[in-house]
Amino acid sequence: MQQVKHKMPEQAAEERRRNFNEVALGYEAETARAEAARCLQCKTAPCRQGCPVEIDIPQFIKHIKDGDYDAAIDEIKAKNNLPAVCGRVCPQEDQCEKFCIMGKKGEPVGIGRLERFAADYAMAKGREDKAEIPAEVLGKVAVIGAGPAGLTTAGDLARMGYKVTVFEALHAPGGVLMYGIPEFRLPKTIVQQEIAALRKLGVDIQVNAVIGKSYTIDELLNEEGFDAVFIGTGAGLPHFMDIPGENLNGVYSANEFLTRVNLMKAYKFPQTGTPVRVGRSVAVVGAGNVAMDSARTALRLGAEKVYIVYRRSEEEMPARHEELEHAKEEGVEFRLLTAPVQVLGDDKGWVKGIECIRMELGEPDESGRRKPVPVEGSNFVLDVETVVMAIGQGPNPLVQNTTPGLSVNKRGNIVADEAGATSKEGVFAGGDIVTGAATVILAMGAGKKAAAKIHEYVQNKKTAR
Amino acid sequence: MYDIVKKEVLSPGVLLFDVAAPLIAKKCQPGQFVILRIDEDGERIPLTIADFDREAGTITLIFQEVGHTTRQLGALNKGDAILDLVGPLGKETHIDNFGTVICIGGGIGVAPVYPIARAYKQAGNKVISIIGARNADLLILEKEMAAVSDELIITTDDGSKGRKGLVIHPLQEMIDAGMKIDLVMAIGPVIMMRSVADVTRPHNIHTIVSLNPIMVDGTGMCGGCRVSVGNKNKFACVDGPEFDAHQVDFNGLMARQRMYHDHEKTERCGGGSCKCNK
Ligand SMILES: Cc1cc2nc3c(=O)[nH]c(=O)nc-3n(C[C@H](O)[C@H](O)[C@H](O)COP(=O)(O)OP(=O)(O)OC[C@H]3O[C@@H](n4cnc5c(N)ncnc54)[C@H](O)[C@@H]3O)c2cc1C
Ligand SMILES: Cc1cc2nc3c(=O)[nH]c(=O)nc-3n(C[C@H](O)[C@H](O)[C@H](O)COP(=O)(O)OP(=O)(O)OC[C@H]3O[C@@H](n4cnc5c(N)ncnc54)[C@H](O)[C@@H]3O)c2cc1C
Ligand code: SF4
Ligand code: FES
Hints:
Chain A is of the alpha/beta class. Chain A has helices at 13-16, 29-36, 57-65, 69-77, 83-89, 96-99, 111-125, 148-160, 176-179, 188-200, 217-222, 254-261, 289-300, 321-330, 398-401, 432-435, 440-464; strands at residues 139-144, 162-167, 204-206, 228-231, 237-238, 251-253, 281-285, 305-309, 333-335, 338-345, 351-364, 370-374, 380-382, 386-389, 393-394, 427-429. The longest helix of chain A is centred in the last third of the chain and has 25 residues, at 440-464. Chain B has 9 helices and 17 strands. The longest helix of chain B is centred in the middle third of the chain and has 13 residues, at 110-122. The two termini of chain B are 29 Å apart. Residues 33, 43, 45-48, 62-64, 66-70, 108, 111-112, 212-215, 241, 257-258, 261, 264 of chain B line the site of one flavin-adenine dinucleotide.
């Protein structure tokens, strides 16, 4: 038995660093079946405990091995509404694949790659989901935010027989999948196809609807006739560093930079209406997935030099290993143990550099990571024309500010229990708005649990009446 | 899709649209704005809600053709539709009976001032309005402003209508004459708002301005609209657009507004050989 995963075909680094086409190309059927054959079909299926939406992993892999791809996708879709997305962006190394028996001696089964294969097969074939929607309408639920959390709740409730309306502030549903994660990792047509499948289940998606402005939660419950509300508004509030020069032209939050390029397709400007400026050299501050995405996007927009500026060392970098490797292959330069002190501007108010200070690692802090401390007098300047701040996001406060009775913690996240119930009756929440910035699949898992809880709540309320 | 139900040319390059948007018309308040996207490839641009008709379910947008998107918008006609329209966004104006309020509108800024002046008037204030433009042809909403003001003063740079000079001149005179002014609301080009702030600051007259930085989402998600107010960064789309004029870093705002100026020019025109007037 082969001890390593079958390799994922990829665009060569030299070529892909200048285009927005997808980097990973996906398995051919033959490779997929060979990879599926690596699965031991464990009775205990330890992989399943790593999956927040509880896909029957060995079962779908078996179907792929047998060449029954339709059965494979049905098995996945029974639990996961967005497999083409998850197969691409889930950190499987921390989830299902982390627990895979095959990983003990060699590499785990490429579960994510197989999931993607099955999903892409179904999409290419234009296959309709099989889903029997009950004829009886069980109730009416409003979902706020069309990110992975909201879409999952909506899909699950629709399958149970609820009339679901999703309210999305932007002009396109998808949340971070549309505005944040770049085209070269997650093509937007794929996201929209997955969402189209949800619409086929009867989910009504209202875009351009900002809850807190268009409607308040109380209005949805008391005037618009919704039995329950799910809040999945995500962690969309960009943080800045509060250093001098941050308002100069050429300083972007990662959210703005990525939104311009992904949602607004600024890489096609002027064919599209939204501009973006990169200049010749770019510094991206931070070292998470958001930072890697920003850096790789800057390269593709034509920047000659792109730096990642990070105050800790490689070991502490929060980005997925795979993304880090991709960024390195593409030529992103890493300035580690380096912290920005100020952004320098020219006389017209444009960025001309970023002053940094070198750091060294000191004692471990609360997170257990060694705390970086500045090395006195080690300041130096990186000549850049653009700075992208990718140092994290907080919760968008619009809904919380307009919803009396909804508890939030001191960081502004909505307080909800495991099942998604908040302090306010009939109001449920999940995803990044509750946990802070996390992952697609955790948001989906929260959405699933909330859907079950909402079902219970609405039916209890109906029988009590 | 949002239908354009009325189109009117107010002055050269300044257009008025009534757009069918029942939900926005039902909810909006003076001081709020919308963000629109004309078509699939379009940019998202913010425009103030200059008026609304809750019954008819329409909102009024008044805009100046200054660049690509506003020109493309101006080329649309009654019966055409806009793909995306989201709102009402931003905080509404704080309306109360303050006493005497001076409402100042410069150029296209008269459009957003109008519903605010009307609301101040309805709340019982004495409203004195000063509206200005470069010349008589460019002056908008004169009749409408007169109808909601106890007194209306007009200024033009060239003297072709009303008083020759800037909107701050009559304001300065009122202050010098010792008039009791409880609030000044000023909307217009940043330079105008900055000079109004400079005029009222020494007299501690509470002054509010409505800022127009470049925006993308309008929901607090991108931070592109950040302005420094009292040395703290604020997101104009959710924390504003109205702020205390004496706290605003107008120079920073002006610099940021020019972020894409050259880029739009060179990228669109390839250096100026086309005929797009940019
Ligand atoms: C650049 C980037 C790259 C990432 N890469 C990965 C990755 O590779 N793998 C991974 O697993 N995770 C990744 N993540 C994290 C992941 O995308 C998020 O954890 C996930 O999207 C959270 O889902 P959500 O549904 O909670 O919120 P979001 O996806 O943020 O969706 C929230 C939605 O709610 C809408 N909304 C907000 N306020 C309102 C309102 N008042 N009214 C109506 N709608 C509203 C927003 O417009 C948005 O569409 C990445 C994140 C970013 C930013
Ligand atoms: C809250 C708010 C309310 C506004 N209300 C009105 C109004 O009622 N009537 C009106 O005529 N104008 C209004 N504006 C300004 C209007 O949004 C810009 O004139 C318009 O976006 C210009 O786009 P363009 O493509 O035609 O011009 P461009 O060629 O792109 O730019 C011309 C200038 O417009 C500004 N601008 C460009 N893009 C944006 C953007 N996305 N957001 C904001 N400003 C931008 C810049 O200062 C730029 O230098 C408002 C702006 C804001 C922020
Ligand atoms: S743990 Fe690995 S080998 Fe075992 S069933 Fe799951 S995927 Fe297959
Ligand atoms: S426009 Fe994006 S935060 Fe204000």
